[in-house]
Design a protein that fits this description.
The chain is mainly alpha-helical. It has 4 helices and 2 strands. The chain has 2 domains: 34 residues, no CATH class; 61 residues, no CATH class.
Length: 98
Amino acid sequence: MNLISTVETAKTSDAMQDKFGFDLSHLMTGVKHFDLENSEEMAKFAQLIQMQQRTEMQKILEQITPPKEDVNAMIVEAINLGKPQIKADDTMTFEYFL
């Protein structure tokens, strides 16, 4: 896993060099020089990004969550199946086959 991370970091650094004319080592030098790790502005920006990510995740969750009516219908159908039977091979089955 560490090797993959190293390769991806090198690829990112090379792409930055090609596109912007500086690589990750230059970027980190700038971060240290301008003390961006302790910058109040950067902290606010990071919070904004985190809020956006949470909002996006919430939207995705809402899209993939079935409606309550469907969940209730599935529960009723499951109850209607009755108690499962345990077969000789320790698997469970119901009295019908799909």
